[in-house]
Write a structure and sequence with these properties.
The complex is a heterodimer of chains A (about 375) and B (about 350). By secondary structure, chain A is an alpha/beta fold. Chain A is about 35% helix and about 20% strand. Chain B has a domain of about 240 residues. Chain B is about 70% helix and about 0% strand. The chains are: A alpha/beta (about 375), B mainly alpha (about 350). The structure holds adenosine-5'-triphosphate (ATP) and magnesium ion.
């Protein structure tokens, strides 16, 4: 795992404080005995590129379906553009301002891509005039389907179907775009194009709500994320805040014996002279990852600006790191730590929670391995 | 995907919630459903079957006409002794049957009678009843198949959520579907009756029939017959609409109405047998149960709607072309109300089912 991927997301200041486009209040959905979504409170604001993350079956699609009025909540409310969609008239008006794909795109298989988009224009109550026809062609161009616009939808490849779905979502120039796993089935170039497109839309003022499993992608395009597990909201916040909370400094030593000493010093300092230190722990060797001369790493969870201070702190205790490296947190590690790769359910964090602080270990895997090392020594 | 500048949106369809705007939107949606239905291969195949079979049957009638007119066997036909000399019900047993050569005049008379009854369905306005009767059988079956596929596939393809997630209301989507089915029913009814009229003024006269003038108020009667045939088509399609939505499936939408028609046939047969066996009040009650069946009422309605026109059909008095319901017991008003009540029930239940249903297909 590359721990040094730079975050490319937009500055958080550009996105905070906007008008709330979508808000869910105590939203729950029960399917028989399965609680697909449990007491969910999301806030998607104007201009956000909002990522809805979570393992399979965590309730992402269910949440999006409720937002689109396809299924009805068991409890709770959804507000779109400032009013509740339990009011049917408002729901219909609000949905006209939203473009969406949920799960696999659905179209008339025997109609061409262009005809299908005309149908979407009809559904969206766009006027049936030349401007709409032009818009249809423009969108087909935009998603790269222009050369195949006359072919029946059923003859499209998976990625082409997905592209048409994205085109349909964009068609009516919506204020909010909802994309459920938009890069599903796309080739690498398509993934990059969708990423660029989302960035473009966001700059144009469109709010984007997307669900994805591709955390690397999400980290690059999203400004805010919410993480779900088994229907519960584990965390919600600015990507930059979440990432800052999982960034830190990596220390390499030539002598493995220095590892426990360094970790001990850091943990002790965290409680006293270095309050900015959130924790410290061993980093397990991972195949392909950067390895210092000594072969082992200690990580100090803190703002990367404290790298020098950490070095000085260790030096005061007679410990000299052979290498000091900053690492930016990445969403994947954060996500895995939060959702629990082993499958246990961490207690749901409050909605605005930042990085869960685990002193002594920065992730469940790292912690587990560090524990094993200690055990082996004893 | 070349990034294109998407300006912030101001214009949107929000605020068009007046009833007029709703109706216009719904009508556009109706046209869309019709377009989508027309673009199916299935609808063209079904239309081909509808027209092809009609032409085939017409051809057979013409053939039958030609064969009977050119045959000499008429002369050898045995004529039962006039009914006046016989007791009713005696016929099959000891009834006298006289086979004697007929005079040339008699032969010609019989030939003319046969000719009249054979070409009646090809002669206006008898041809309308021929086309109408064909439509309320074949047309109904084929429209039921199309309707089941049309409505069911909205769920199968998932295109229903494409519409609903764009702010098309559930009632609006259903209204547009019902309207599309109504347009199809009226269109098929009109098309087939026009075809019947065309045949009636071309083939009938070509076979030597003389066209009779429409009776007074004929135009109104034509209109009423068209509406009755269309209602027949629509009502059975409404079964498809209801079942396809209920089961979210094309199969249910197609098999449902066809199954219902077959059920009616069987039920009527069984009920009449049981009614005969039981007699008394219960028997009477059972005999009248089919009076509340949808198909029976639709049939009675179309038959009744044709009555004013029947006067102009020479051969109909003898019941030669009339497929009339033997012992017709269903009054016209009863037939109309029961048929409309079925339609209202089917459409209304569908609205009720869809109102709060989760659409996850
Ligand atoms: N129509 C349904 N009937 C019953 N249970 C359902 C239905 N749809 C979803 N569920 C259940 O709800 C839970 C959440 O499903 P959902 O589709 O929202 O997950 P998801 O987060 O979108 O997962 P994925 O990443 O796999 O798309 C799952 O346990 C699923 O089995
Ligand atoms: Mg999903």
């Amino acid at each position: 795992m590359d721990a040094t991927v730079p975050a490319q997301h937009a500055p958080p200041s550009a996105t905070t404080g906007g008008e709330v486009v979508l808000r869910t209040i105590g939203l729950s959905k029960q399917y028989g005995r399965i609680t697909a979504v449990n007491n969910l409170g999301l806030d998607v604001r104007q201009g956000d590129v909002f990522g809805l993350l979570g393992p399979n079956g965590s309730g992402k699609t269910t949440t999006l379906r409720m937002t689109l009025g396809l299924i009805f909540p068991t409890a709770g409310e959804i507000e779109l553009f400032g009013a509740r969609i339990s009011d049917t008239n408002h729901r219909r008006a609000a949905l006209k301002r939203i473009g969406a794909i949920v799960e696999q795109p659905a179209f008339y298989p025997y109609l061409s891509g262009r005809e299908n988009l005309r149908g979407v224009a009809t559904f969206a109550a766009m006027p049936s005039d030349a401007a709409t026809s032009r818009r249809v062609d423009e969108v087909l161009e935009l998603v790269g389907l222009a050369p195949r616009a006359g072919d029946a939808y059923r003859k499209y490849s998976l990625g082409m179907k997905q592209r048409l779905g994205i085109g349909a979502a964009l068609l009516a120039r919506p204020d909010l775009i909802i994309l459920d796993e938009p890069t599903n089935g796309l080739d690498p170039a398509g993934v990059v194009e969708v990423r660029a497109l989302i960035g473009e839309l966001a700059r144009g003022g469109t709010t984007v709500l997307l669900s994805s499993h591709l955390l690397h992608e999400v980290q690059q395009v999203c400004t805010r994320v919410a993480i779900l597990k088994q229907g519960n909201l584990l965390a919600q916040g600015e990507v930059s805040t979440l990432l800052a909370a999982s960034s830190g400094v990596l220390l390499g030593f030539t002598d493995p014996a220095e590892l426990p000493r360094a970790a001990g010093v850091l943990l002790q300092a965290a409680g006293s002279e270095a309050p900015w230190l959130r924790g410290a722990g061993y980093v397990p060797p991972e195949p392909g990852a950067w390895v210092p001369p000594g072969g082992w790493l200690v990580r100090a969870d803190t703002d990367v600006a404290h790298a020098a201070a950490i070095n000085a702190l260790l030096a005061r205790h007679g410990i000299f790191a052979a290498e000091v490296r900053r690492y930016e947190g990445n969403l994947e590690q954060y996500f895995l730590a939060l959702t629990g790769a082993e499958g246990q359910t961490p207690a749901p964090a409050p909605a605005q929670a930042a990085m869960p602080v685990v002193p002594g270990a920065s992730g469940t895997i790292a912690g587990a391995i560090a524990g094993a090392i200690e055990g082996g020594r004893a | 995907m070349t990034p294109v500048n998407t300006a912030p949106v101001t214009a949107s369809a929000v605020g068009t919630s007046s009833p007029i705007a709703w109706l216009l939107d719904t009508w556009r949606l109706t046209r869309w459903y019709l377009f989508a239905a027309w673009r199916r291969v299935m609808s063209k195949v079904l239309l081909g079957i509808l027209l092809g079979l009609f032409v085939l049957i017409t051809g057979f009638i013409v053939l039958g006409f030609v064969v009977t007119q050119n045959s000499s066997t008429v002369a050898r036909d045995c004529q039962p002794v006039p009914a006046a000399t016989q007791q009713a019900g005696d016929n099959g047993n000891g009834g006298q049957v006289v086979c004697e050569p007929l005079s040339a005049q008699q032969q010609q008379q019989i030939r003319d009678q046969q000719a009249d009854s054979i070409r009646a369905p090809l002669t206006f306005p008898g041809s309308l009843q021929f086309a109408g009767g064909y439509t309320t059988f074949m047309g109904v079956i084929l429209l039921a198949i199309l309707a089941g596929a049309m409505i069911g596939s909205e769920f199968g393809q998932g295109t229903i959520r494409l519409a609903l997630s764009r702010g098309v209301g559930r009632a609006q989507a259903l209204t547009a579907q019902v309207a599309a089915l109504a347009v199809l029913a009226l269109g098929i009814g009109l098309g087939m009756l026009l075809l019947g009229a065309l045949i009636g003024v071309t083939i009938g006269p070509a076979l030597g029939a003389t066209l009779s003038a429409l009776p007074a108020g004929g135009v109104g009667a034509l209109l009423a017959y068209w509406l009755a045939v269309s209602l027949y088509l629509f009502a059975i399609a409404a079964i498809a609409f209801f079942l396809a939505t209920l089961a979210r499936s094309t199969a249910a939408g197609i098999a449902g109405p066809l199954g219902y028609l077959i059920f009616e046939l069987i039920a009527i047969g069984v009920l009449s047998i049981v009614a005969l066996a039981i007699q008394g009040d219960t028997g009477d009650f059972l005999r009248h149960v089919p009076d509340w069946f949808l198909g029976q009422n639709l049939g009675a309605l179309t038959t009744a709607a044709f009555q004013p026109l029947a006067a102009a059909v020479p051969t109909i008095r003898g019941g030669a072309t009339g497929g009339g319901n033997g012992g017709q017991t269903i009054g016209t008003m009863h037939a109309l109300l029961v048929s409309l009540a079925y339609c209202a029930l089917l459409v209304g239940s569908t609205y009720f089912i869809m109102r709060r249903r989760d659409v996850t297909d």
